[in-house]
């Protein structure tokens, strides 16, 4: 159960946010009421109401009436009647005051039972604010709330025997910032994080797979090389008279068993020998002597080809650098010889001596380059090279 909840927690949170967001959405009501006084029509219109949470969001109109025989017009009694004129056959809207010790649902249902098309609840006391009413169970009766000032004004008109007509229009949809932007942002962020996580998992798995595959391939190559090396090692049988059978005889370092006559042993390149059946699996996995750690692949030259090729390339590169530096030194000496010469014969002698020096230096350099090790194997190479230049110059 816990694992299911953790796996579906993002979806549950997203659903909860969507549900909460839909509950926080409210619709305003544009209220237009008008009346006739002294043969003149007066009225007022504005976004002054809010539809209830459980109210249908639709347009209604009708004559505004008050609860009958009540001082505060709260319509809390079940048998409340309303001041609907006997001659009126059209739709009517009940104007009810908030409070009186009953719920919004009771007020609205009492008016709906008497035939009200809609119910307008105005705030009581000095409260002029409006809010979204909660009135479950009122079915298809439209219900809005308006402020105390407008509600009291309309009540006074009706009590003065002035008929007030009202039209309730659907206003604008309002909601908190989270309703409009956060749900989209959270949804996009959730999918981006999920995609990034899945992408990283795929990349990491592919990388691990490639590493494992490379390691397996390397192990197979090493085992193949180990088999080749094992086949090149000597094998002999222990015979009567061998020193290993004497009182001071040795034991196999792998199985710790003393050698016996006719035992088959394998002799490694380091001259250590062991039981053939003991050392072969050992060499196949480790490729080294159990006693001195001598690597049979390197000893037999099986795994040294790549290293030798890298060393040869490094030596060739160093030789070219030495030759290039030597030629530059010879050119400088050649220019100095020309600038100090006073006659053609002397120039010829100088030139001859310079070329002899080039020949000697080149030979020395070439001879030296053969024994030169790469930089990584000879850290003092650079200082030795500088000393050689100083001696030759």
How would you sum up this structure, described in words?
- With 393 residues, this protein is an alpha/beta fold.
- The protein has three domains: 24-175, Glucose Oxidase, domain 1, CATH 3.50.30.30; 202-303, 2-Layer Sandwich (Herpes Virus-1), CATH 3.30.40.10; 305-392, no CATH class.
- Helices cover 49% and strands 17% of the residues.
- The chain has nine helices and ten strands.
- The chain has helices at residues 2-24, 104-113, 148-159, 177-232, 276-286, 296-299, 305-340, 344-370, 381-392; strands spanning 26-37, 40-51, 60-65, 92-97, 118-122, 142-146, 164-174, 234-237, 264-267, 273-275.
- A seven-stranded mixed beta barrel has the order 1-2-6-5-4-3-7.
- A hairpin with a 5-residue loop joins β9 (264-267) and β10.
- Residues 1-22 and 337-393 have low confidence and may be disordered.
- Given the structure, what is the number of helices? 9
Helix proportion: 40-55%
- Tally of discrete structural domains: 3
Strand runs, count: 10
CATH architectural grouping of the largest domain: 3-Layer(bba) Sandwich
Structural class, from secondary structure content?
alpha/beta
Q: What is the H/E order? A: HEEEEHEEHEHEEEHHHHH
CATH class of the largest domain, named: Alpha Beta
Q: How does the overall form come out from the CA principal axes?
A: rod-shaped
User: For the report, how would you describe the main beta sheet?
Assistant: 7 strands, mixed, barrel
The overall pLDDT average reads 76
InterPro entries: PA_dom_sf, PA_domain, Znf_RING, Znf_RING/FYVE/PHD
Keywords: Membrane, Metal-binding, Signal, Transmembrane, Transmembrane helix, Zinc, Zinc-finger
Domain RING-type: 252-293
Protein name: RING-type domain-containing protein
């Amino acid at each position: 159960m816990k694992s299911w909840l953790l796996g579906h927690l993002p979806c549950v949170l997203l659903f909860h946010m969507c549900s909460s967001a839909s509950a926080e959405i409210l619709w305003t009501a544009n209220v237009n009421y008008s009346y006739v006084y002294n043969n003149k029509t007066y009225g007022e219109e504005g976004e002054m109401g809010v539809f209830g949470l459980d109210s249908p969001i639709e347009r209604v109109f009708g004559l505004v009436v008050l609860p009958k025989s009540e001082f505060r017009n709260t319509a809390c009694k079940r048998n409340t009647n309303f001041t609907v004129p006997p001659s009126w056959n059209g739709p009517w809207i009940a104007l009810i005051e908030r409070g009186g010790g009953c719920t919004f649902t009771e007020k609205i249902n009492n008016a709906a039972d008497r035939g009200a098309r809609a119910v307008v609840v105005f705030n009581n006391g000095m409260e002029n604010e409006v809010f979204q009413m909660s009135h479950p169970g009122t079915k298809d009766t439209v219900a809005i709330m308006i402020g105390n000032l407008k509600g009291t004004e309309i009540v006074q008109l009706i009590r003065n025997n002035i008929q007030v007509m009202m039209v309730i229009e659907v206003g604008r949809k309002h909601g908190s910032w989270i309703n409009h932007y956060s749900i989209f942002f959270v949804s996009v962020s959730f999918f981006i994080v999920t995609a990034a996580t899945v992408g990283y998992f795929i990349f990491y798995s592919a990388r691990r797979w490639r590493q494992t595959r490379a390691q397996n391939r390397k192990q197979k190559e090493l085992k193949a090389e180990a088999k080749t090396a094992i086949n090149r090692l000597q094998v002999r049988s222990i015979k009567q008279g061998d020193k290993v059978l004497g009182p001071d005889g040795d034991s196999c370092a792998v199985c710790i068993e003393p050698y016996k006559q006719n035992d088959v042993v394998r002799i490694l390149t380091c001259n250590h020998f062991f039981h053939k059946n003991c050392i072969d699996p050992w060499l196949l996995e480790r490729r080294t002597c159990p006693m001195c750690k001598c690597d049979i692949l390197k000893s037999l030259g099986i795994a040294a080809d790549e290293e030798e090729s890298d060393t040869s390339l490094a030596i060739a590169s160093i030789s070219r650098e030495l030759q290039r530096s030597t030629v530059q030194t010879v050119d400088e000496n050649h220019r100095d010889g020309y600038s100090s010469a006073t006659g053609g014969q002397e120039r010829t002698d100088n030139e001859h001596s310079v070329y002899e020096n080039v020949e000697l230096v080149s030979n020395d350099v070439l001879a030296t380059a053969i024994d030169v090790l790469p930089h990584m194997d000879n850290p003092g190479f650079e200082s030795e090279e500088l000393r050689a230049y100083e001696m030759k110059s």
